[in-house]
Design brief:
Layout lengths: L1 E4 L2 E4 L9 E5 L6 H9 L8 E4 L2 E5 L4 E2 L7 E4 L11 H11 L4 H14 L15 H14 L4 E5 L10 H15 L3 E4 L3 H7 L2 E6 L2 E7 H6 L4 H6 L3 E8 L2 E3 L5 E3 L1 E2 L8 E6 L5 E3 L8 E14 L2 E7 L12 E4 L1 H7 L6 E7 L4 E4 L3
Parallel strand pairs: 3-9, 3-10, 7-8, 8-9, 15-22
Antiparallel strand pairs: 1-2, 4-5, 5-6, 10-11, 12-13, 12-16, 13-14, 16-22, 17-21, 18-19, 18-21, 19-20
Helix pairs in contact: 2-3, 2-4, 3-4, 4-5
The structure holds adenosine-5'-triphosphate.
Keywords: ATP-binding, Molybdenum, Nucleotide-binding, Transport
GO molecular function: ATP binding
Protein name: ATP-binding cassette domain-containing protein
Length: 357
């Protein structure tokens, strides 16, 4: 598709498999909202062909453009945008009613969905009587109530406070997985992509500059933007009681940030600034301590990023882990590439999230 807005041109070619969740990341103004708007039928593209299953939604060459409300494309944005005069239940039942469902059927379906998103007891409240997180849960229920063929999520957690966002993300993850909902998710948060998406695409200046399985793009970023968002330490494994267990069986201790059941695929996430670097294994406090071989020293503004490789006999999953330390600490440690070191990170600094298979 090619869509112009003012002097900006979006030019992308994208295919999403049924049931797939694709995350779209990119700097401000890279065209993420323009992409969603074009799929939703909000903008008239200059030259595009958009198909959903067997249906043609847009074919500019043939003069076809299905209006937004007939696309069976659901949209959820930062703000819940509920009808202010309707109760939570009636907000969710509205779409099915418009699609011709009987009133009692639509209300029953709405109640079930409100229970699914964890706000069954709020069904009689109006939007003004809901918190941001509660309203967004209702908005998720409303978006799914019409059983859209494609769900578009435009920064659905951005307006929520940091405490509410992971719980709402969990709810969305569970429902999207259960219904096999085909989804395109625009986000600024790489953790959203890890938790929800099978695949990640990176937009820059209206074009796709990178795409692939989420973990792969983050492990081997090619664009400057992907490198920057990949600036978190990620360790994948299987959730356990106190954190996760890597594929090789190493325990990584952390705190579950949201609903993640033992035995499920999980990812441990921590900032490189939380990693302490030692010459000898540190003693005492309960934390994660792992041997690494120093691969590189990368200056990063105020700090130096120590990049790890596996040490002989050590676990392979440390490959690529980063530790940010001050230049003074680097001088004091006297480290050089090839040195054998220990990376340590406190369990309280490690967030454990569920991960898409
Ligand atoms: N109404 C408009 N008229 C003209 N140009 C517009 C309009 N809306 C957006 N643009 C331009 O289109 C480009 C893409 O905007 P878009 O909102 O799709 O980016 P985005 O990636 O979603 O950004 P953000 O992360 O800031 O939400 C921007 O350069 C913007 O200046």
């Amino acid at each position: 598709m090619t869509t112009r807005r003012g002097g900006f041109t979006l030019d992308v070619d994208l295919e999403v498999a049924p049931g797939e969740v694709v995350a779209v990341l990119g700097p401000n103004g890279s065209g993420k909202s323009t992409l969603l708007g074009t799929l939703a039928g909000l903008y008239a593209p200059e030259d595009a062909r958009v198909t959903l299953g067997a249906r043609v939604l847009t074919d500019s060459a043939a003069g076809v453009s299905v209006p937004a409300h007939r696309r069976r494309v659901g949209m959820l944005s930062q703000q819940a945008l509920l009808f202010p005069h309707l109760t939570a239940r009636d907000n969710v039942a509205f779409g099915p009613r418009c699609a011709g469902r009987r009133r009692h059927e639509a209300l029953a379906a709405a109640r079930e969905l409100l229970a699914d998103v964890g706000v069954a007891e709020l069904e009689g409240r109006r939007p003004a009587e809901l918190s941001g997180g509660q309203a967004q849960r209702v908005a998720i229920a409303r978006a799914l109530a019409v059983e859209p063929d494609l769900l578009l999520l435009d920064e659905p957690f951005a307006a929520l406070d940091v405490d509410a966002a992971p719980a709402v993300r969990s709810v969305l993850r569970r429902l999207v997985r259960r219904t096999g909902q085909t989804t395109l998710l625009v986000t600024h948060d790489v953790v959203d992509a890890v938790v929800l998406a099978d695949r990640l695409i990176v937009l820059a200046e209206g074009r796709i500059v990178e795409q692939g399985p989420t973990a792969e793009v983050l492990a081997r970023p090619r664009s400057a933007f992907a490198a920057r968002i990949a600036g978190l330490d990620l360790v994948t494994g299987t959730a356990s009681d106190g954190g996760l267990t890597t594929e090789e069986g190493t325990p990584v201790y952390g705190r579950p940030s949201e609903e993640v059941a033992p035995g499920e695929p999980a990812v441990a996430v921590f900032p490189p600034s939380a990693v302490a670097v030692h010459r000898k294994p540190p003693e005492g406090s309960p934390r994660n301590v792992v041997p690494v071989r120093l691969a590189a020293l990368e200056p990063q503004g105020e700090v130096v990023r120590l990049r790890a490789a596996a040490s002989p006999g050590g676990p392979p999953w440390v490959e690529g882990l980063a530790a940010d330390v001050t230049p003074a600490a680097v001088a004091e440690l006297g480290v050089e590439p090839g040195d054998d070191l220990w990376f340590a990170v406190k369990a309280t600094e490690v967030a454990v999230h569920p991960r898409r298979r």
